[in-house]
Design brief:
Blueprint (H helix, E strand, L loop, with lengths): L2 H31 L6 E11 L7 E10 L12 E13 L11 E13 L4 E7 L1 H6 L8 E8 L2 E2 L24 H14 L8 E2 L16 E2 L1
Antiparallel strand pairs: 1-2, 2-5, 3-4, 3-6, 4-9, 5-8, 6-7
């Protein structure tokens, strides 16, 4: 083989390396996105306080869910992800609270019937106005976190090393970005919500119409 042929072959190989590398990266990224515990993410959480019903202002929480991929290889339609359970936990520091264990914690869940891939949708939760006034609750809680399950599989918020997954930053409040802080808060909340069952409500359990829910998904009830 002539020196010129060798040079041409070497050049062709070098030109192919970036393409092969990019393909491998793309394949790895897709594989990560499609893992059962990383297919539906929390895109945003928004808080609002206003009068929806009765004389006192209610607290409303909007959880924006981002469906990335269907984890079920046997799904009849892989563009649609079924049975996505969204659980919101919020905590407020009370005037007489001596520690986070004494805070007011509220929790509610809603299971979305189905979500179209790459089409974010919002789920709304409400705290009644009388409770907001009674417990002197501000619009924004002191802590919050959102748990998401897809067909019974919990979506990861922290990786195996205990580090927050960047795409899940919105799933927890800034006070809970560290796994140790999250675990501690969850322990307090799991006990605290036993005293507040049924107070925080998903949107389909409130008795008034809120126009922001017009584009919400359908729910399993």
């Amino acid at each position: 083989m002539s020196p010129l042929s060798v040079c041409l072959l070497a050049a062709a190989y070098l030109l192919s390396v970036p393409t092969l590398s990019a393909q491998a990266t793309s394949q790895n990224t897709s594989a990560t996105a499609a893992t059962p515990e990383r297919c539906v993410l929390v895109k945003d959480v928004k808080f609002y306080q206003g009068k929806f019903s009765g004389p006192n202002a209610w607290n409303r929480v909007e959880v924006v869910i981002d469906p990335r991929a269907n984890p079920d290889p046997q799904a009849a339609n892989k563009r649609w992800i079924d049975k996505v359970k969204v659980t919101l936990t919020i905590g407020y520091k009370g005037e007489k609270s001596k520690s986070a264990e004494d805070w007011n914690y509220y929790r509610a869940s809603a299971t979305i019937l189905t979500l179209e891939q790459n089409q974010p949708r919002s789920v709304f939760f409400y705290l009644p106005g009388d409770v907001v006034k009674r417990d002197q609750l501000r619009k924004d809680p002191d802590v919050y976190y959102v748990d998401v399950e897809v067909a019974g599989t919990a979506q990861a918020v922290f990786d195996a090393r205990g580090l927050l997954i960047p795409d899940q930053k919105a799933a927890v409040s800034k006070e809970l970005l560290k796994k140790a802080d999250y675990d501690g808060c969850k322990g307090f909340a799991d006990r605290g919500v036993l005293n507040s069952t049924g107070i925080l409500r998903p949107q389909y359990l409130v008795s008034f119409y809120d126009k922001v829910s017009d584009f919400s998904p359908e729910f399993v009830r």
